Automatic annotation (TrEMBL):
InterPro entries, sorted: Adenylate_cyclase_1, Adenylate_cyclase_1_N
Domain of life, source organism: Bacteria
Gene Ontology BP, a term: cAMP biosynthetic process
Residue span(s) of domain Adenylate cyclase class-I N-terminal: 21-213
Organism encoding this protein: Aliikangiella marina
Entry protein name: Class I adenylate cyclase
GO molecular function: adenylate cyclase activity
Record PANTHER family: ADENYLATE CYCLASE
Length: 930
């Protein structure tokens, strides 16, 4: 759909003199703006700019930009001036220009565009150069020409001029060529808006002139252009035809707004102005009054005032007109324009020879600004971070306002589906990385607002559970009357925020107020030094290619013990343990965990900074899951920092060995469809990690007995045990964990003292059962477990399938931890006449929890009748039957779980048996004490 009214085709005569006059007006305007632009550079820089036409016209090995003799070059209607030749000889004394006939000019023209030569040009403005081509070149030629532009840009950079070159061919706007985003290009997101900007801001340097110049505003562009060529009023080879800006799709406003939002990261004020112009266009849609059309109309109306034809001032006036009834946004627009221009106005002074100063002074006087306001803006280069924070609030509010308006406009116009999804994703990621707040991300505040926010000193104060950051070295009594610039939940993040926002340098000092003596100047200085090193050495090259992929961690720093000194007790006692210094998780005689608390800091490929705190027993497993991809593929990207830990390199090696083992177990469990169970000592505790096929679970245990008992939780899939080299368990237990599963059940009876035993059972799937018994003999245990196992066979057995045997092993570990295991020969005895059989039948109570009814001889003790006293009742009954005064435990001989569980297995029954026997042992102990 045409977005402007179709213009009628007129048949009035075309005046050749009029064409020449119009062309001269545009050329005169270009020359005036070029002179104004050059006035902002020193003599050397101005000479290098003047040399651009010659550098693109020839390939000379002694001049900047030389690739080879076949690189595309040559500009029509151009011959170097005496001044340009003289400048060239200052670059290369041996250079001598030799005029030659070109069979074909491979370049069409050179144009500077943007804010150059306008009120918006500042001393930091870069130059955008369009290298125009009449037609597309081959891939090899385009590559060489691109190399030529890069070499010329590099040479200009050495002169202090930032030059961005763009290769533009004549038909690309008409054909809406699709291309990827580049550093300062917008791909297909701003096809017509870019052309609109070109027509009103372009400064012609040499070559063909735009056909657009000589198409009268009231004429139909294409029809009139055809008449000019057909009737031979012009030679088409003298002109470049990019087409008209008559049709701007609604989708382009949206995608262009996204692009300017991203550009606002580095140039917030410049992009804010352009966003307002886009908003102005969108508000007028579909009858858009283009600034390029207004610009042309003024030229045709014989307006020759360069001030009135200043395209940047025209853009400002257009935005100002529709913000007249929005004072807050109007105030921000004027501030943005003033700061973008960079003129420092003193109302008491005139500078008659400085047109930029005089024009800006005229504007601020009309805005009725006070000198106090101007002084604040004039000191922008000295703004501190608190001022930047306030300014950023206004900036983000304005950017959000523009974004929401344009987004709503695009939805109403149904334009979202017309935008390149690839570029929208890329731009969306750019904006997300810069403006989106999320947990763990450290916001960068100074994005193009102030030049330098470094502080010679900062003050940090701990208040409750928070840390507050103040500017300068303040006394304690000054803090209540001073507003902090940042508040964080941790000391580390407070410092990281300062580093990421470039507030600190190597000479910055720190004043720290905290009731905890651990936090002091030296700790702050050490953290800042290491953080600054990480940031400095991992600055990503942020361009559009980085955002075409998901963000990747580039650098990851682990900062150990940022909140406590794990060796504080040793230091206070002035006694350092010399035992067990190999394992940082259980260091020294006191088994101190040197790694129980740490902060992680990262930099990713999108230029984001972030941190996360880890502490407690599960700190490292949580870290593993958060960063396992980095651990697996980019270990060299991870650095470890610690001030209080000896032999850090050795501990780092130990840490990564553990993390890599975890990763292998995770992958192995998926590949082999089994559970890999990992055990390790962790300070004074134990950690159990189950790597299932599709998930991971982990628990901690205070004591070894609790850990071994916890291993009995039955797993329905095969299980393999693994452990840390420093696992603090008896050697024989570790042997049994490592022992491969057999086809039969293995029962290991380990004697720890007279009549005291540990019983370990491993099933064919590798499941592990553990129980402690006292007051019994080895023979009693063997016979009891055999009897219980036989009863299970009757309950669970499939008589068509042979059941595994229960094989017994014995070791006396009362003197030797790693005693040899001996096979116990089968000696099954009939215990029916020696002991009463006790049956437990599982039931569910009113709360749907599993409880037990107990049967012995002809007696029944129901949970419904006695509740938890059911165990005491059974114990009393057993004591009443015993003739011997010797104390020995009560064993359960059979269990029935059929009413509460399906698919019961041997390990399930053993686990329930242990629970019941422990409760009976407690009841028996209480009864025999009285």
């Amino acid at each position: 759909m045409s977005l402007t009214k179709r213009k009628n085709v007129t048949q009035k005569s075309i005046d050749r003199k009029h064409i020449i006059n119009i062309q001269r007006r545009f050329l005169s305007l270009s020359e005036k703006r070029l002179l104004r632009m050059l006035d902002g550079f020193n003599l050397t820089q101005a000479d290098s700019i003047k040399l651009l036409p010659l550098l693109f016209h020839v390939n000379h090995p002694m001049l900047p930009g030389y690739v080879d003799k076949s690189t595309p070059c040559g500009l029509p209607n151009y011959s170097p001036t005496a001044l340009e030749k003289r400048i060239a000889r200052t670059v290369s004394r041996s250079f001598k220009y030799e005029s030659r006939a070109y069979l074909k000019f491979e370049l069409a023209g050179l144009y500077l565009m943007g804010s150059i030569g306008t009120l918006g040009q500042s001393f930091r403005s870069d130059l955008d150069l369009w290298v125009c081509l009449g037609e597309r070149l081959g891939a090899i030629e385009m590559t060489k020409l691109h190399q030529k532009t890069q070499l010329i840009s590099a040479w200009m950079s050495s002169k202090g001029v930032e030059l961005n070159c763009y290769l533009v061919y004549e038909k690309q706007f008409a054909q809406q060529a699709k291309k990827y985003l580049t550093k300062d290009s917008c791909g297909d997101t701003q096809n017509y808006l870019l052309l609109d900007e070109f027509y009103r801001t372009a400064v012609w340097l040499c070559g063909r002139t735009p056909l657009w110049w000589i198409i009268p505003p009231e004429e139909n562009y294409r029809e009139y252009a055809n008449r000019l060529v057909k009737d031979k009023h012009i030679d088409a080879l003298d002109w470049i035809d990019f087409g008209e800006v008559g049709q701007i799709p609604a989708a382009e406003f949206f995608s262009a707004a996204l692009w300017q939002l991203f550009k606002a990261i580095a140039s917030p004020y410049k992009s804010s102005l352009k966003l307002l112009m886009i908003e102005k266009y969108a508000r007028e849609f579909p009858e858009v009054s283009l600034l390029s059309d207004q610009f042309k109309q003024m030229v045709y109306s014989q307006e020759d005032s360069i001030e009135k034809l200043d395209p940047y001032l025209m853009m400002f006036r257009a935005a100002e007109s529709f913000l007249a009834d929005q004072p807050a946004r109007l105030s921000f627009l004027r501030r943005a324009f003033y700061l973008k221009a960079g003129s420092k106005i003193d109302l008491a002074r005139d500078k008659p020879n400085n047109w930029r100063y005089q024009q800006m002074k005229f504007l601020v006087e009309n805005w009725r600004w006070k000198q106090k306001t101007l002084d604040e803006y004039n000191s922008r280069s000295d703004w501190r971070i608190d001022t930047v924070i306030r300014e950023r609030v206004d900036l983000v509010r304005e950017l959000n306002h523009s974004y929401h308006f344009i987004s709503n406009f695009a939805r109403i116009q149904g334009a979202l589906n017309q935008v390149s999804q690839q570029e929208l994703v890329t731009l969306g990621r750019m904006l997300y990385a810069t403006f989106e707040k999320r947990a763990g991300k450290i916001d960068r505040i100074n994005t193009g607002i102030a030049r330098d926010v470094q502080e010679s000193a900062i003050t940090l104060e701990m208040t409750g559970n928070h840390w507050r950051v103040f500017l300068g070295a303040l006394r304690k009594n000054q803090l209540n009357n001073t507003a902090p610039v940042y508040t964080s939940e941790s000391f580390f993040v407070a410092l990281a925020w300062c580093v990421c926002n470039e507030m600190l340098n190597r000479n910055s000092t720190f004043q720290v107020y905290s009731d905890d003596e651990f936090y002091d100047f030296s700790l702050a200085a050490e953290i800042v030094r290491n953080l600054a090193s990480l940031v400095r050495n991992s600055q990503p090259q942020i361009d559009e290619t980085a955002f075409r992929e998901s963000a990747k961690i580039l650098t990851l720093g682990i900062f150990l013990n940022t909140e406590t000194d794990p060796l504080q007790v040793e230091k206070e006692s002035d006694i350092y343990s010399v035992a067990n210094q190999e394992d940082g998780f259980c260091w020294g005689e006191n088994r101190v965990n040197l790694f129980s608390q740490f902060d992680v800091f990262w930099v990713n490929s999108w230029g984001e900074y972030g941190s996360k705190k880890y502490s407690g027993e599960f700190a490292w497993i949580e870290f593993f899951f958060d960063y396992r991809q980095v651990i697996t593929n980019q270990e060299d990207k991870i650095q470890l920092f610690a001030q209080q830990i000896p032999n850090l390199a050795k501990h780092k090696k130990r840490l990564f060995k553990m993390l890599h083992q975890w990763n292998r177990l995770r992958l192995d469990s998926r590949r082999k469809q089994r559970t890999n169970r990992y055990l390790m000592s962790y300070g004074s505790q134990f950690l159990l990690i189950d790597f299932f096929e599709t998930q991971v679970e982990y628990k901690s245990f205070r004591y070894a007995k609790q850990l071994l008992t916890g291993l009995s939780n039955h797993l329905k899939e095969p299980i393999q045990y693994f452990h840390d080299d420093n696992l603090d368990l008896p050697a024989i237990i570790i042997r049994l964990l490592n022992k491969p599963a057999e086809v039969d059940y293995q029962c290991f009876i380990l004697q720890t003292a007279q009549n005291s035993f540990q019983v370990v059972i491993k099933d064919p799937a590798g499941n592990f059962f553990y129980q402690v018994h006292s007051g019994v003999s080895r023979e009693q245990l063997v016979n009891h477990y055999q009897q219980f196992y036989d009863g299970m066979l009757h309950q669970l057995g499939n008589w068509n399938t042979p059941m595994p045997y229960l094989m017994f092993w014995y070791a006396d570990i009362s003197y030797e931890d790693n005693a040899r295991l001996q096979r116990i020969k089968d000696s099954h005895q009939d215990l029916a006449n020696q002991y009463s059989a006790i049956l437990a039948i599982a039931v569910r109570n009113t709360e749907d929890k599993v409880r037990y009814d107990l049967y012995i001889d002809e007696e029944v003790f129901r949970y419904q009748d006695f509740g938890e006293l059911v165990y005491r009742k059974l114990a009393q009954f057993v004591l009443g039957k015993r003739q011997s005064q010797r104390q020995y435990p009560i064993f359960i001989t059979n269990i029935d779980l059929s009413s509460v569980s399906q698919g019961v297995r041997v390990m399930d029954l053993l686990r329930h048996k242990r629970v019941i026997e422990q409760k009976l042992a407690n009841a028996l102990s209480k009864l025999t004490r009285h």
